[in-house]
Amino acid sequence: MVRVHVVVHGMVQGVGFRFSARVEAQRHGVTGWVRNRSDGAVEAELEGEPAAIDRMLAWFDEGPPGASVSSMTSSDLEPTGEPGFRVLS
Fold first, then answer.
1. Which residue of 3, 24, 34, 65 has the lowest C-beta tally within 10 Å?
2. Active-site positions?
């Protein structure tokens, strides 16, 4: 298991990014959370098998239809064993 912190910048709010991320996370068996930030970015923590996290990072780099990702950063964290995937406000 691995866990990563992700911050995505661009036109990523108001385009269904968080809810699409939850669908993708469930599809890949990834746990964690996603939320909008006050600076217009989307932030998430993703936990799962390395291959699943790689697929999620690739998805975050593109986002859902209507999103325009200008940059994405990620950093490794210690896994927590968090269950499920939550959309935070």
1. 65
2. 18, 36
Tokens 């200008």 map to which residue?
A: 70
> Dihedral, CA atoms, 13, 16, 18, 4, nearest 10 degrees?
-80
Q: H-helix or E-strand containing 81? A: none
> Distance (Å, rounded) from C-alpha 14 to C-alpha 38?
13
Distance CA 15, CA 66 (A): 6
Residue 70 tokens read as: 């200008």
Model confidence, pTM: 0.95
pLDDT (tens digit per residue) in 5-39: 999 999 999 999 999 999 999 999 999 999 999 99
Cβ atoms within 10 Å, residue 39? 9
